[in-house]
Specification:
Layout (H helix, E strand, L loop, with lengths): L2 H5 L3 H8 L3 H14 L6 H10 L3 H12 L10 H19 L5 H12 L6 H15 L3 H17 L3 H14 L4 H14 L3 H8 L24 H12 L8 H14 L3 H14 L3 H14 L3 H17 L2
Helix pairs in contact: 2-4, 3-5, 3-6, 4-6, 5-6, 6-7, 7-8, 8-9, 9-10, 10-11, 11-12, 11-13, 13-14, 14-15, 14-16, 15-16, 16-17
Amino acid sequence: MTVAALLEGDRDAVTQLAAKDVALWTALAEHVIAREETIAPSALVHAMLAIDRDPKAWLGRAKEALAQAESPYFSTLMGALRRVRPWLFDGLAAALPPDDPGSLALRFEQLLSSTAEDALAQTRAFVRDLERAGGDAKARADAWMLLARRAHEDRELDEALAAAREARTLDPTRDGEVTRREGAILLSQGRVTDALERVHAVLATRGPLFGGRGSWRSRAREDPLEDALDEAATIVTWASHTTPEWVRALGGIAERSGQGWERFERALAQMMATSKHPDDDLEVVERQAKQRELVKTSEAARAARRALSRATR
């Protein structure tokens, strides 16, 4: 089957695509990249939807096939998907009614990976549309948590807090995730003690890396303390008490604010006591502190490494 037949919506070609044919998916990706096309043609999209109306299932097929592809046009799966995903999603979204569950799922996936300046406004509009359409509580909770993330990124902190708590109401199993977001918001407000009290229990274990899938939008702060607090707010959404990045973040807050150094020292000692590879974890704290010009934090980690080395000789 040729790409030309596929783009014209030939059923046999689209059936082959649905079967995750590696050669056909590779040829399609190369076509999209070479022609710099921005949206899948209507004939192809309608033929795809006639076979399977779940847009996420089509993305899954693309991932599985392109993961096995070899092409001069892209060297990695992510390189291929960076072009194919929006081309495919925009075509599918244009063919589906706005309140179609598949269309809403597409919009959510697009917003999840968005780094656009107006990502918050787009997410607000999506949450409104999803609430009008109804649907299951889990999908709505996912949307409210995304709104909490985007509002937090733009420092709309009251809105972020309200959105996270709405997600908890819709899906009580998200309590740990919401608690972490509450702690992150408190950190962004500079309420460090309140934040640490709020998240103490949930930091007993790690959460999903970087707080779950999707993109993060961050802006460097001119004020060193605000920058340290914002970075800690990101890390608290996924770390545990003894995660090296979190321990380093506590050192950064203490060093920039002049308060809480003993808290950092306790966290450093706890990390060393519980780590399977304490020198490796101390190296992470030292290196990351150096990168952020946290001299005192870096020196504390280096001193701990020297003491550990002497103790284990």
